[in-house]
Specification:
The complex is a heterodimer of chains A (285) and B (331). Chain A has 285 residues and is an all-alpha fold. Helices cover 76% and strands 1% of the residues of chain A. By secondary structure, chain B is mainly α. Chain B has a domain of 197 residues: MetI-like (MetI-like fold), CATH 1.10.3720.10. Classes of the chains: A mainly alpha (285), B mainly alpha (331).
Chain lengths: 285, 331
């Protein structure tokens, strides 16, 4: 009796394990499908794309869309602008945010709590509403249509969230290590640089990914701040595929692949760190 | 400044004998050192303060001021400042579009945040259930979706739901639903909203799922086992053991999701291809943009933005207060 009961229970457990596996696989297929479809379409000739029976794998494999996409005007300019502006902005924002996060997490700083809540409130302001006033002050500082103006914009827009995340990572590192270094004669800044920074590096990297994506994606601000064609970034280029005469879907999908590629590579490169980083950042809040 | 004294520490060698304090320290008077100690944290936050205050604070102040002005293209070009007090707000509250947009935003946020948190937490729990291989597959899927920039994602989703050649219609017809041949998904408000919701949920799941999973790994296994031995059902274990531990993460993610989805603009704008107004797919963020840019009533647009922020503050206020009180925001 008891053996049959145990048997049926383990049977039930095995069945539920299988159920969860099926759910997991089905879920992954649904989630990944849009990404797969983008890649699939990018390798198909337009005649195949606009046929009434789509094929679920690139039967008429071609690189034509990619060659076309890269040949479009401004691709290389926009790619260079995107990379230079976004990478600079991310580096600057990480330095500024790390210093602020260390100060807020490590010192009894007057008004720190208010500062943090204020930063969260700033997040609530719709970014589209700030385009004009931001343009006006950049214009007054003669920074419109310059790299510096856009870098400054991205640094500022990503700063609040970056400080919030980094603060969590800093708090997760026990202060004892820095104190030990200071007992041994290190200055506060020396301890930050040599002890704290290496320890929160995973957090810094995963936070950097966030700011990278935000800046990489922006279409609204670059469109207003940059006026010259050769100063635009890749999102602007991406929207040039749709014209009044119709959309070149093959080229557009190839463009989307090219546009997503740097982010995906960056992500896969640091993926383990992102996940471990999130634990520290989110849980130790 | 501390460079000469630190190598011993950094290299971790055992020679932690007495390191003589650098001479300049001994000479500097006490008050100066105290001042420097007070000054340092301030100096560290200073760049962030200048940026947030200067580059972000000024536009936000400007936004608030603009909401009390009549600012059209004429005033913008001529640099006229025409204060009109509460006129924009009065107009806003008497506009039936405001109530429509408010209702749309509320329903939309409820749907998106509810779905992302439910599915995201579900996926996190699922990741704990399956084996290592499937867990890696799920993580990779999440990373792939997450890494896709939202402008590219919007474009791909319009392509999926394209009326003539979109794969979704093709599959539906193949499944026998012939009415979906050339079905235009962006022809009605409800349908357009459903697709925007689906896409936003799709994009947001990875962040929620991976963060929640990371939090879940902190729940000691012994707790689950002990509860199971005591005869607790999975539902009870989740509510009484698992959830209390991931609650801080859950709160923070909910607040962030409400803020992000409450301000939704980009995805709606790209997916509807500028037809948002015709379809009345106008959550507050989109309406604000249309008022400010399409009709060039910047004052009115600013007023809408301010009201949106106030509403979000009221909605998330409870969570933020809880976070502050439970020490989540303790500095």
């Amino acid at each position: 009796m008891s053996t049959t009961m145990a048997g049926s229970r383990s049977n039930r457990r095995r069945r539920s394990t299988w159920l969860w596996r099926v759910v997991a696989v089905a879920f992954c297929i649904v989630m990944v499908f849009p990404v797969y479809w983008m890649i699939n379409s990018s390798f198909e000739p337009n005649s195949q794309i606009t046929s009434l029976t789509p094929s679920f794998f690139p039967a008429h494999f071609t690189f034509h869309n990619f060659v076309d996409a890269v040949d479009r005007p401004w691709f290389w300019d926009d790619a260079r602008n995107s990379l230079v502006i976004v990478v600079t902005a991310v580096l600057v924002v990480l330095v500024v945010a790390f210093l602020a996060a260390a100060a807020v997490a490590r010192f009894r700083l007057w008004g720190a709590k208010a500062f943090l809540v204020l930063i969260l409130v700033v997040q609530m302001v719709p970014t589209a509403a700030l385009v004009i006033p931001l343009f006006l002050i950049l214009n007054r500082a003669k920074l419109t249509d310059t790299y510096a103006g856009l870098v400054l914009t991205y640094v500022t827009l990503t700063l609040p969230f970056t400080i919030w995340m980094l603060r969590g990572f800093v708090k997760a590192v026990p202060i004892d290590l820095e104190e030990a270094a200071m007992v041994d004669g290190a200055s506060r800044m020396g301890a930050f640089r040599r002890i704290l920074f290496p320890l929160v590096l995973p957090g810094v990297i995963s936070t950097g990914v966030f700011s990278f994506i935000t800046a990489w994606n922006d279409f609204l601000y670059v469109n207003v701040i940059m006026t010259q064609n050769y100063h635009q970034t890749l999102p602007v280029w991406l929207f040039s595929f749709s014209t009044n005469t119709g959309t070149d879907y093959g080229g557009l999908m190839a463009g989307c692949v090219l546009f997503s590629l740097p982010v995906v590579v960056f992500f896969l490169f640091v993926q383990r760190r992102i996940v471990t980083g999130l634990t520290a950042g989110a849980v130790k809040g | 400044m501390a460079a000469p004294t630190v190598p011993e520490v950094a290299s971790g060698r055992a020679e932690r004998v007495v390191v003589p304090a650098p001479p300049y320290r001994r000479r500097s008077p006490n008050w100066r050192r105290a001042l420097r100690r007070q000054l340092l944290p301030f100096l560290l936050v200073l760049p962030a303060l200048v940026l947030v205050g200067g580059v972000l604070g000024y536009p936000i102040g400007q936004l608030v001021a603009t909401s009390f002005q009549q600012l059209g293209l004429f005033q913008l070009i001529g640099h006229h400042v025409l204060w009109n007090g509460l006129t924009n707000y009065r107009q806003l509250f008497s506009d039936s579009q405001f109530y429509s947009s408010l209702e749309q935003t509320a329903v939309f946020v409820l749907a998106t945040v509810g779905l992302t948190m439910a599915i995201g937490t579900g996926v996190a729990l699922l990741m704990g259930r399956v084996g290592k291989v499937l867990r890696t597959v799920i993580s990779l899927t999440m990373l792939l979706v997450w890494a896709m920039p939202s402008s590219a994602a919007s474009i791909v989703w319009t392509w999926l739901f394209q009326a003539q050649w979109g794969v979704v219609n093709y599959v539906l017809v193949a499944l026998g639903l012939h009415s979906f041949g050339s079905h235009d998904w962006f022809a009605s408000q409800i349908s357009a909203y459903s697709i925007v919701t689906a896409m936003i949920v799709w994009q947001a799941i990875p962040f929620i799922a991976l963060s929640t999973y990371a939090a879940l790994t902190l729940v000691p296994n012994e707790l689950h086992e002990a509860a199971a031995v005591d005869g607790a059902t999975p539902g009870v274990i989740f509510r009484q053991v698992t959830f209390p531990i991931i609650r801080p993460v859950f709160f923070l993610l909910t607040v962030l999701s409400i803020i992000w989805d409450g301000n939704v603009f980009n995805q709606v704008w790209y997916l509807t291809g500028g037809r948002a107004q015709v379809l009345n797919v106008m959550p507050l963020g989109v309406w604000q943009y249309i008022e400010a840019f399409a009709t060039q009533q910047y004052g009115m647009g600013a007023a809408i933005a301010i009201v949106t922020v106030l509403i979000l503050l009221v909605v998330t206020g409870y969570y933020i207060r809880t976070m502050v009180r439970t020490g989540e925001v303790s500095a």
